[in-house]
Hints:
Blueprint: E1 15-26, E2 29-41, E3 46-50, H1 57-64, E4 72-77, E5 80-81, H2 87-97, E6 98-101, H3 113-123, H4 132-141, H5 157-169, E7 175-179, H6 187-204, E8 207-211, H7 215-219, E9 223-228, E10 231-232, E11 238-239, H8 245-255
Amino acid sequence: MDEAAPAVTSEPPVLESRGVFRFRAHDGQQMPVVRDVSLRLRRGEFATLMGPSGSGKSTLLHLLAGLDRPSAGLVLLDGVDLGGGDEEARARIRRERIGFIFQFFHLLPDLTVEENVTLPLRIAGERPRRHQARTDSLLRLLGVDGHRKKLPAQLSGGEMQRVSIARALVTQPPLLLADEPTGNLSSKAGEDVIALLREVCGKLGTTILLVTHNPRDAAAGDRILFLRDGALRPDAELQGGPFRVADVLHRLAELGI
Ligand SMILES: Nc1ncnc2c1ncn2[C@@H]1O[C@H](COP(=O)(O)OP(=O)(O)OP(=O)(O)O)[C@@H](O)[C@H]1O
Ligand SMILES: [Mg+2]
C-alpha cells in the first residue's frame, strides 16, 4: 500500500529514535527506565507524551534532546546521530537545533526578559542585534513584548513560561521539547501556553514534543503518545487531534494511567 500513501508521510522525520534504551542503577542492578523506544516526529507536528509518574518521560525527553546518551539505540535529528561526535559537536547541535522548555522556567534572574531571550544567540557567538527583527516578532507572538526590560521576578508564572518559550525559539530550532511546561501555571495560564505552542507549530513549522500530565493539554496535540514502564504503547497512540478531553481520559483509563 506504500505507493498509495500521501507524499507527506514519505518526508523524512525531523526527529527519530530507533530502539532506544536507558539503564539506571536500582538496588544494585541495572534496570531499563526507557525500553526500546522507537518513534518518528514529522516537521510541524505537535505531539504530546503522557504516562504515569516515574514511567520515564523526562528521561526519554533528555535522550531525545541529546542531554543524555542512550545505553543502546539511536536518536537522529534530521538524520544526524545525536549520540555521535564529541561533546562539543553535540552541544552545538543542542544549542542551535533544539529548544528545551522546563517546568520551572530556568530564566536567569539578573537578566532582563530581552536578555534572557537572546542569551542563546550570544552563547552561539552571534550578535543579538543582527537578529533584532526575529526577537521582536517572537516577543510579540508570545505576548511579552511589553515586558522586555523587566526582570523575571517582576513577571507572573505564565509570563515567565512564555519568555522561556521565546528563548527556546530564538535560534529557530526545528525541534522544541517541553517537559511539563504548564505544571507550575494556573489553569488559564497553562491553556494560553498550550495555545501559543500550537500557534508556533503552525506559524514557524516547529516540531514539538510536549510531556504533560494534563489531559486538556494533551488533547490540543495532533498526536498523543503513551509511555508505561519506560516503553511506548504504539497500539494505544491517539492520532488526528486535536481531541476531545473525554477521549483522552477514556484512553488513560483503558491504560490504567
Ligand atoms: N538520576 C537518576 N538516577 C537514578 N534513577 C533515576 C534518575 N532519574 C530518574 N530516575 C528513575 O528513572 C525512572 C524514570 O524517571 P523519570 O524522571 O524519567 O520519570 P517521569 O515519567 O518523568 O516522572 P514524573 O511524571 O514524576 O516527572 C524513575 O524510576 C526514576 O526514579
Ligand atoms: Mg518527569
